Amino acid sequence: MRVDHIAIAVNNVEEALKNYQKILNVDRLEIEEVPHEKVKVAMLELEDTRIELMEPTADDSPIKKFLTDRGEGIHHIAITADDIEKDVARAQQSGMRMLGGLRSGSYGRRITFIHPKSLNGVLTEFCEAPPKAEAKETLHENAK
Ligand code: ZN
Questions:
Q1: Per residue in 3-22, pLDDT tens?
Q2: Spatial distance between the Cα atoms of 80 and 83, rounded to a whole number of angstroms
Q3: How far is the CA of 23 from the centre of ligand 1 (A)?
Q4: Ligand 1 mean position to 142 CA, how many Å?
Q5: Which fold has domain 2-143?
Q6: Contacts of 109 (CB under 8 A, 6+ apart)
Q7: Ligand 1 centre and the CA of 7: distance in Å?
Q8: CA of 143 to the centre of ligand 1 (A)
């Protein structure tokens, strides 16, 4: 297993990007809107993980609520392994409280969340590992 990404709730993705680019050598950067999650996401690809900056795109976005309650900051960490079904089954068997079932997140990858109460106050996402061939394809696209 590895940390797929660390997600940070921000008020404005473009403004936050300027900050993070001061300290990170970003190999690759993608910005995407995820309408059903009501967020705009910037994925900063680092050598061995990513940082995901998330901005709410609607007042009823869960990220909006997070920002109102707590302000900007770390929102969740995401763990990936080869078999997400197995990870979810193991978590459920161990009594972890899941937040909804498997659904599609950014970049069409399947995700689900574990409630922070089950993991010492940290909202934790399981996400599907990207197919290796497709990952290479994307890298190639961006290298052009
Ligand atoms: Zn995430």
A1: 999 999 999 999 999 999 99
A2: 8
A3: 21
A4: 22
A5: 2,3-Dihydroxybiphenyl 1,2-Dioxygenase; domain 1 (3.10.180)
A6: 127, 128, 130
A7: 6
A8: 25
